[in-house]
Amino acid sequence: MRMVSIHHCEEGMVLAKPIYDENARVLLNIGTSLSQAHINRLKKRISFLYVKSEMTDDIVNIQEDISYELRTKTITSISNVFSTITDSQTGTNAITSRLKNFKNLKDTFALVMQELRDSLKHVNLISHLQINHDNMFEHSLNTALYSLSIGKTLGLPEKSLHILGLGALFHDIGKLQLPKSLLTKENLNEEEKLLMRAHTEIGFEMLRKETELHLLIAHCAYQHHERIDGSGYPRGLKGKDIHQFAKIITVAEKFDHLIRVKGMLPHEAMEVLHGYCYIRYEIEVIEAFKKAVAIFPIGVTVTLSSGERGVVIGYNPKYPQRPKIRIFMDKDGNKLTIPEFHDVDLLQELTTMIIKCDAVIERKAKV
């Protein structure tokens, strides 16, 4: 089984995992032979899919940290609670709905935490990018998953992990009170930047009033843009004055932004974070993230600087940007057959780099 960009799919490829719609209903099941019509329709929905491949028959199947169905259910629960919090209605029905939505989210998030506990050691970040759209709810869940993986690696107790995860889910809720046009605009003027920055204080005020939520969750929304050198906002806090949860969330949400919005490759995004160690981010948090996340997980298709294409078949946790690759296409674009497949260990071939990853489709300008 290997992961393939929807843009690199070919007629006759056979699905190794189901394709779901936004409501977790199966669109195409395992074993479906893809037609060109299938591929054209899927391009509007997803970024990549899993197909059967004889070149990886000797490799253990890819395992995702949480199932697609649970991701979808969690995102729906997040959306419902966000709507509840921003709804000004106070009648009996509104209160009942509010309590029901909060309970559903807590129950669903408990399942997320359970699956993360039972999953492989490393979080498979690529599996978080399958949906071909970018919205606050996807970003919130990805940030929560990355934050939990960091917190787990740092040895945080279960109760703290629960608060951290919910804090990450709600970190951007203040943006719901901002104009939608502001959220999608790329180059903000100074006035718009000040308005955008207000989402941290707006989120804090919204969350601190919620009796269903721990007060620390509100502080996660308030502090997730603070930087350890004091250059952040809204208060310009430094070092130890910033809560540990906020330090974790700021790394997690920045990484997701660099991957999903800026189109960086995973190791490029990690290098950006490293570049801000001791300035914006704590080195302990960055190192924990490196240990917790498989940035090029087994099964993902990549292109090398040599022009060859291959599938990741081995992962080195100490050097996650230098995996082992099984080559299936040479530098001239010729497909190789089984006897011609060969493995390249990037820890040994130090002049060769990954330059493209099938899970990261569009490469936008880096900032």
Placed side by side, the strands forming the largest sheet appear as 10-9-8-7-11
CATH topology of the largest domain: Hypothetical protein af1432
Q: Give me the CATH superfamily of the largest domain.
A: Hypothetical protein af1432
Which structural class matches the secondary elements? alpha+beta
Q: How many extended strands?
A: 11
- Helical content (DSSP H or I, runs of 4+): 40-55%
CATH class of the largest domain: Mainly Alpha
| Order of secondary-structure elements | EEEHEHHEHHHHHHHHHEEEEEE
Question: Please, how many domains?
Answer: 2
Distance separating the two termini: 34 Å
Number of helical segments?
12
- Main sheet specs: 5 strands, antiparallel
Low-confidence stretches: 128-134, 361-367
Strand residue content: 5-15%
Radius of gyration: 21 Å
Shape: globular
Give the name of the CATH architecture of the largest domain.
Orthogonal Bundle
> What's the pLDDT, averaged over the residues?
84
Description:
By secondary structure, the chain is α+β, with helices and mostly antiparallel strands. It has 2 domains: 52 residues, Alpha-Beta Complex (Molybdopterin biosynthesis moea protein, domain 2), CATH 3.90.105; 227 residues, Orthogonal Bundle (Hypothetical protein af1432), CATH 1.10.3210. The chain has 12 helices and 11 strands. Strands 10-9-8-7-11 form a 5-stranded antiparallel beta sheet, with no helix packed on it. It has a two-stranded antiparallel ribbon with strand order 1-4. The radius of gyration is 21 Å and the shape is globular. It starts with a strand and ends in a 10-residue tail after the last strand. The C terminus is likely disordered.
